[in-house]
Amino acid sequence: DEPSLLPSDEPSDEPSMLPSDEPSLLPSDDPSVLPSNEPSLLTSDEPSTVPSDSPSQEPSSFPSSSPSNQPSITLSEIPSSLPSKQPSPKPSSSPSKSPTKHPSFQPSNFPTETCEDDNDFTFRLENSFTTIVDCRWFTKNQLNEETRRNKYCPKREIREACKKTCDNCVCRDDLNFIFTLDNGIAQDCSWFLRQTSKIDTRREKYCSRTVSGRTVYDACRIGCGVCIFPF
User: Using H for helix, E for strand and C for coil, what is the string for the chain?
Assistant: First the structure.
């Protein structure tokens, strides 16, 4: 009924009913079925093969050798010491509160393009050989502003110089925009680029037309050559 004063020469066939006062010198061959009530005093030599059900209360002293498969649910309080190898697929929802302490080692592949009008650019009006105006002319008369844009912004030289006024800052087609050809067939913006030999003819004939108060060139910015998408 009482334990032996000295240990036996060979281990027992069955485990004892009561735990020993001190831990074993050597680990067991098979792991315990149930976890221990208290954590181990020493760390294991190898990581667990299965992740724990709940996260650790405190962060580990050393970072992981490889990144996790999924991002963290909550943001870290301290930023990473090194930049990521690849840029984020989406921009952040809020800007940084303070600028970075260290600038980038290399510039970005594509420069940031500002969308402003060229203040030095001027052009001559079609109904006058002497009247020369600049980009500000479009907005000097609010009643004629839309009419002026519809008439002059489709011209490549003007829309490239008066980018902001002609709304030539975003390079994309409106995927939902539909217009009708003279033969009654409805087409979308991709129709302009489907035959290389007919691109210029199609643009000249249809890009200046208006559909439900909107010009085709405004909806089909790539199709009408308003801007060149960086393929």
Answer: CCCCCCCCCCCCCCCCCCCCCCCCCCCCCCCCCCCCCCCCCCCCCCCCCCCCCCCCCCCCCCCCCCCCCCCCCCCCCCCCCCCCCCCCCCCCCCCCCCCCCCCCCCCCCCCCCCCCECCCCEEECCCCCCCEEEHHHHHCCCCCHHHHHHHHCCCHHHHHHECCCCCCCCCCECCCCCEECCCCCEECHHHHHCCHHHHHHHHHHHCCCEECCEEHHHHECCCCCCCCCCC
**Per-residue pLDDT tens for 112-137?**
456 899 999 999 998 888 899 999 99
Mean pLDDT over residues 156-166, rounded? 88
Angle ∠(63,68,69) on CA atoms, nearest 5 = 170
- pLDDT tens sequence across 189-223: 999 999 999 999 999 999 999 999 899 988 998 99
